[in-house]
Each structure stands twice: as structure tokens, then as C-alpha cells.
Amino acid sequence: MAIAKAERLMNLALCLLGTRRPLSKRELRGSIEAYLEAGSDDAFNRMFERDKDDLRELGLVIETVENLDGDTGYLARRDSNRLPPITLDAEEAAALGLAAKVWQQARLAGAASGALQKLRAAGMPETEDAYEVHSALEPRIPVHEAAFEPLMLACRDRRPVTFDYRKGNAARPEQRQVEPWTLECWRGHWYLAGWDRGRGAERVFRLSRIAGRVRSRAGAFTAEVPDVVTVRETVESWAGETATRTALIRLRADSGYPLRARAISVRELGDGWEELEIPYGHGLDAWLVEFGPDVFVQEPADLRADVVDRLRAVAKD
Prior knowledge:
With 317 residues, the chain is of the alpha+beta class. It has helices at residues 2-18, 25-31, 33-36, 41-57, 90-102, 108-121, 130-134, 148-157, 228-238, 257-262, 284-289, 301-316; strands at residues 23-24, 63-66, 72-75, 161-165, 174-186, 189-196, 201-206, 210-216, 243-252, 265-270, 273-281, 295-299. The protein has a five-stranded antiparallel β-sheet. It has a four-stranded antiparallel β-sheet with strand order 10-11-9-12. Helix 1 packs across helix 4 and helix 5 runs antiparallel to helix 6.
């Protein structure tokens, strides 16, 4: 359905941009196949009015003109819809080139590369990439999960989805019905924030725990989509970035450097172990499990129990 509507909007935009005189509804209906297939005049009129409003929301300037016979016609003048020349200085061009490198493992890689080529063809200055010449570091957001692309499209098109999801302390995945809001990357992991229909509440899902295919479902969202800043704060909290207290852990020497970077204090214990005090928030148990036998939780007890439950769930697999 989303592809059919996009094609219909594109055809309508091309008709309005390609004409030198205003076109009536009757002429537009005869020129666009989707309009010819409308079951009735009322169905066509509703479809046309929605499409016209959608194109205007996208920024197309559509004029409504009355001819001498009193009929209403529509056109989109090219001079009214022509973008101004794009001028970028060397620093702005370098920033765009750097940003395009971020999406080298996802569907957006082709779009980013194509956009850069068009800008360069239009005269964008070629710049020496300081990151490429002088540094071994390269900005990149890794995307390894198969669920990323279908969820990205579902977030864009506002389509509900279903998928099997395994919580960190569960042995088997459970099916979830979700209205996806946005994808966020925290500490190298991708998270989906959305409305969980089964639980009637907002939830955050780590993409690496989604099993099998992500399936799209028809229908509109039932919950209001919050502001993007609020969604990011939700992901931050669920991903363990918002700390409410601290935890004491034993960490094997020369390991767990991401944990050391967050540590409030570090104390030598001897025998190759150190004691770290780190901020404790939602999701810390899932993070600690990734360090395996190099980490032992001393306190609090509920955090230690959560880590043990997650390790047992992994061992059952």
C-alpha cells in the first residue's frame, strides 16, 4: 500500500510540474492509472484531495486556477518549485563526506553515496578527508541485525510490526506486537522504541534479541507517537544510561575497559582482580553479562541475581 501511494503521488507531481496550463480533475484522472481505477467519482475526489494535501505538506507549491468557463485547474510552476543553488564551503563539504561514511553497513549507504555524487556534480568542492588521511579511526555505526532494515522502514511508514523477542532472562522468545517509533544506537547496540500493544505501554527492544523475521501488519497506530527527544530519553533509560544508584563489581585486571571508563572509583584487590564502583541503572545486568567470567557482581544482590538469571538463560540454549 505504501509503495502504491508513493507511486501515485509521484505521478501526480509529475503531471502538475510537466503542464504549461492548469489541468482539471477530469484531465488528471484520465492521466493517472490509479485514479482511473477509483470505483466512483466520490472515491476519486477523496483520493485526489488527500494526495494534493500530502504533496503540499511535502513542500510542492500547487496553484489552484479558475478558467473562463468556471472550471478549476491545478498546476505546479517549475519556477515556484525550483530549489535555490546549493553552495557549500570546504568545511561544510567535509562534514557531509564524514556523515556519509557513518552508514556504510545499512540500506542508507547507497542513498548517502548517491547524494554526495550529485552534490559534487553540481560543484560541491572536493576536500581532503582529514579522518581518512591522518587517523586510523573511522566514524561508523555498525548494523549487523537483520531486523534493522524492516524496522527502519516500519518506523518511517508508521506501520505496526510483529516479531519474536527474547528477554535477557528468558529461555524462549515471545511474540510482540509493536507500533515502532524510532531506532536508536547506544554503546554500539541498536534499540527499537515503540508501543507494545500486548502490554499496553511503551517499551524498548534490543535488536540483537529479535529472533526470526519482522513482519508488517496493516492498520494505523493506536497510541500517540511522542516527541523524538522524549523517545531518546526512554531509550537512554532502558539501555542503562540513566543511573539511579551505584553497584560494586569485581573485574579481572586488563579487561572490561568500557566498564572502567564509567567507574566512579577503582580499588586493587590482588590476585588479578579489581573492585569498581559504577553507576547502576536499568539494563546494567544485560551489559555485565557480555563480559562473562571477567566480571562478578558484589552488590546489590538484586543486580547479581539478574546477571545470574541471564547467564542461566544463555546456558540453556
